[in-house]
Structure prediction request, 87 residues.
Amino acid sequence: MYLHLGKNAVSAYADVVAVCDLDSASHSHLTRTFLSAAEKNGQVINVCEDLPKAFVVCADKRGGQTLYLSQLAAATLLKRAGTQSFE
Prediction:
């Protein structure tokens, strides 16, 4: 199964590591550091036309990670997945 992240971007459920609300997660300096490091390493893909509301961390095939910025809310992404978690 696949999760539609917005703007024709999809990720396999098995690759999704985390779905985070950008507003609440960005209060932590650790999250801001994580997001900055991912952007510097070229791991961020912006799949929104407006301001991002959530970010989705996905594992890639090389053992690294890709971080998608989505204009969809984290709750909406979880509803699309039909679950409250990806465990």
